[in-house]
Design a protein that fits this description.
Layout: H1 2-29, E1 34-50, E2 53-68, H2 91-117, E3 119-124, E4 130-131, H3 136-140, E5 147-151, E6 154-155, H4 159-165, E7 174-180, E8 183-189, E9 192-197, E10 202-207, E11 210-211, E12 218-220, H5 226-230, E13 236-241, E14 244-245, H6 249-257, E15 264-277, E16 280-293, E17 306-307, E18 312-315, H7 320-324, E19 331-335, E20 338-339, H8 343-353, E21 358-364, E22 367-373, E23 376-377, E24 380-381, E25 387-388, E26 391-392, E27 395-397, E28 410-415, H9 417-444, H10 455-468, H11 470-488, H12 496-509, H13 515-542
Antiparallel strand pairs: 1-2, 3-28, 4-11, 5-6, 5-7, 7-8, 9-10, 12-13, 12-17, 13-14, 13-15, 15-16, 18-27, 19-20, 19-21, 21-22, 23-26, 24-25
Helix pairs in contact: 1-2, 1-10, 2-9, 2-11, 2-12, 9-11, 10-11
Amino acid sequence: MLQNLGFFILLLGVLVTVHELGHFLVAKACGVKVLKFSIGFGPKIIGFTKGETEYQVALLPLGGFVKMAGDLPHEELPPEEAARGFLAQPPWKRGLIVLAGPAFNLLFPIFVYFFVFLGPQETLSTRVGLVSPDMAAAAAGIRPGDRILSVEGEPVRTFDDMRDAFVGKFNRPVPVTLERDGQQRVVEVTPEKSSDVSPVDTVERGMIGVSPYPQPPVVGVPATSPAAAAGLKSFDRVLSVNGVHVQDEAALYREVAKVPEGTPMELSVARLAPMAVGAVTGRLPEVVKVSLPRQAGEGAAALGAEAVDLYVASVATGSSAEAAGIVPGDRIVAINGTPLKSFNKLSTVLNGLQAQPFTLTWRGEKGERTEKLAQAPLKTRDDYGQTSAPVVLGVRPWSYSSADLPPVEKVTIDLGPAAAFKEAALIVPKIVGQMVQVLGGLFVGKVSPSTIGGPIMMYQLAAKSAEQGLDSFLNLMAIISINLGVMNLLPIPVLDGFHLLSAAWEGIRRRPIPVRVREVANMVGLALLILLMLLAVTNDVTR
């Protein structure tokens, strides 16, 4: 608790110091007398005076201020100091002093991200862990274990690089260079168009259907297949081929490729065998040895089996699927006469159909069946005890626990000072643009006010990011600093943006905004800020 509070105070303290330091340094440079530099509001905890300025840390760490001489319209200064008052300065100087706070908040993240990016960092490599069977990568012959080297001639080192390389590339052939078994080859993929929609922008990119996360080699076994004849069963997990450990699908492809077709292979598989203890029936893992000749094809096909994707692992009690006679181990073949290649595609079609009837073809021990079905409401209860009745078919695919998943391959990227500074200088303007779009979305109603957070949310984010490591904490600090910089530039009374607007007005019109107008505007701005704070705190409590 105290540690989390410490991170929260550190986060706010640094950001407030950066903002006020901007005002302070530029005010000093412009010859303005600075009376007080405060981090926090309220009673002073510690402080000292140096020269003409008092420096202090106050009790409430939710802001700070720089008190300059002559910054109030009716404030009187001694004749010898009158020229050093804030309001006595020409508009361009006042504009620079006001702008310095938000500017420091926008420049500080470049410094933060420089240290985040500097040096060696681990990130996901371009090694393919999973290939979706119904997408472009599978059609082009890309398989698990391949390493993607370039996209349309553009070298890629990380999985994020590869995703970014497909921005704007879709619905046309794109050459991809990959490495397999030490050999390079070029394949052409035709990505599908995908739009990454967020509250701030929409990015259109090509999707080819690969993931960096490898899958265990779990097989589906047709009833009349060579695999079934040899003793394999659906949902068996291959542990080894001819004594060589197989940790993922890529390893299965690699090991069966070493065996000539027709040559016997010795497999070791893990199987969940039914086990009854009194009135309770469960499943206990056991290791089974299987011998079978190497079949034609690659991966699971070389075992006479299939990918497990479309095999039904469980059927919900009381569902339409159970009423139709679908049982675990059956394989979904087609919907409305269209062959299926993945469970994701089945889910997409079913989501679109809702309660409309459809024809479903599936294969079981007695062969294929085609029936007319319709999804129906099925009462479910979540982990929090809440009940609902979504319209579902009631079949679920095989799922893996985190303990079953093989480790994902990572690559170390080492950025020097120049490269780290370049990345930092590029990412900050991008985040600024996103912040501006979010604010615009709030005003026009595209972004929900429920996304606004206050001190409680910042406290939670600070604690969580600190648990995830220094880089995560620094990233949060940079984002909030950018947020503060952008927010303070809004032309709202009591914010820096309004003072900047006032200086610009005076510089152009050659006369200041009338005092009465300024006073009313300040009251309105203060009321708006109070309402915003109330909304933020309400959202925090609701969350």
